[in-house]
Amino acid sequence: MSELSVDHLLGIKYLKRDDIELIFQTADHFKEVINRPIKKVPSLRDITIANLFFENSTRTKLSFELAEKRLSADVINFSASQSSVKKGETLIDTVNNILSMKVDMVVMRHPNPGSCVFLANHVDAHIINAGDGAHEHPTQALLDTYSIRERLGQVKGKKVAIVGDILHSRVALSNIFALQLLGADVKVCGPLSLIPKHIEQLGIEIETDLRKALEWCDVANMLRVQNERMAVSYFPTTREYTQQYGVNKQLLEDIGKDITIMHPGPINRGVEITSDVADSDQAIILNQVENGVAIRMAVIYLLASKIKK
Ligand code: CP
After folding, report:
1. Which residues contact 162 (CB under 8 A, 6 or more apart)?
2. Statement to judge: residues 295 and 232 lie in one domain
3. What is the Å distance from ligand 1's center to 171 Cα?
4. 1 assigned to some structural domain
5. Are strands 185-189 and 205-207 parallel, antiparallel or unpaired?
6. Could you tell me the CATH number of the domain that includes residue 30?
7. 55 CA from centroid of ligand 1 (Å)
């Protein structure tokens, strides 16, 4: 396979296993590039990319911008809070105005689930989903599974527990799809109030006991409780949540197993993960961030190769 089966990256659910393998192979090459003294290639000198962020971001926004610049693309950044969206302009009008400035590709983060699919159906550009509400965050799942492959040699056959606020997490859904495509076994773990109804229909198991989930898994992906998406509290207190679903060094030592610890960020230190775990050799949290640049370079490069000039 030499090109992606899709024209946009809207979600992992639209990808085939071969797409992910192609993205990983391409990312392997770009990872080598970004570790050179000159971390840049001229591949996309004729491409212009707009980064549209309607929701806050540190890692994803900077990682996309760096990936674009390392591919030598021209880059424009749009922040909703400083734009004419505040004056009532629609999403389609906003994007069509940006595209009329000869932009080829749009990276968008938006609080509304499905917004990237909607945009792809209404504008003439390649769209990359940088996180749409609680729906999908495909490049996060790609960099997460790439990081598991890097640490453990392969994803196939590995047991991965996704722990925490599954209900509000786009990272969880995209990871479930990517891990299943690559042949991993997946369980979700958290209080039932934070686990979507009918999630078992995706072919995964629910475990409400963190110790049992950790005893089972090779990899634990610890998710943040997304208080900003909650109108009411989903558990009694943060202290009680941490007692039941926070990972700490003592718990890992008691279990006595070599578990790879992941976190997509931002971390709430002392809530879902303690600093002695987050900063330990067991954790690959900063490797995930590093790999995000190579993965995003790969996705952008592969989608740009489908642009008809
Ligand atoms: N992992 C992630 O999406 O982080 P940001 O919200 O900082 O982009």
Report:
1. 169, 172, 175, 176, 186, 187, 188, 189, 221, 223
2. no
3. 10
4. no
5. parallel
6. 3.40.50.1370
7. 10
Q: Are residues 147 and 264 part of one domain?
A: yes
In-domain check, residue 158: yes
Nearest atom in ligand 1 to the alpha carbon of residue 131 is 3
What is the whole-number distance in angstroms between the Cα of residue 130 and the centre of ligand 1? 9
Please choose from 51, 55, 58 the residue to mutate so as to test ligand 1's pocket, defined by most ligand atoms within 8 A of CB: 58
For residue 60, the one-letter residue type is: T
Model confidence band, residue 234 (pLDDT cutoffs 50, 70, 90):
confident
| Index of the ligand 1 atom closest to the CA of residue 137 | 3
Give the pLDDT score at 288.
98
Per-residue pLDDT at 268: 94
Sheet containing strand 260-262, strands side by side: 205-207, 185-189, 159-163, 219-222, 260-262
- State the closest ligand 1 atom to the C-alpha of 56, by its place in the atom list counted from 1: 6
The model's confidence at residue 84, banded by pLDDT at 50, 70 and 90, is confident
The structural domain count of the chain equals 2
What does the pLDDT average to over 295-308?
94
Question: Cα–Cα distances in Å, from 37 out to 44, 67, 280?
Answer: 20, 16, 28
- 166 belongs to a structural domain: yes
Q: What global pTM score does this model have? A: 0.96
Q: Give the position, in ligand 1's atom list, of the atom nearest the Cα of 58.
A: 7
Q: Which of 60, 109, 165, 169 most suits a substitution to test ligand 1, by most atoms within 8 Å of the C-beta? A: 60
Full domain range(s) for residue 155: 139-284
Q: What's residue 215's pLDDT?
A: 98
What value does the mean pLDDT take over residues 229-251? 88
Residues 105 and 126 in one domain: yes
CA dist., res. 308 & res. 50, Å (int): 18
Domain membership flag for residue 4: no
Residue 308: pLDDT band by 50, 70, 90 thresholds?
low
Map tokens 């971001």 to a residue: 57
pLDDT of residue 276: 97
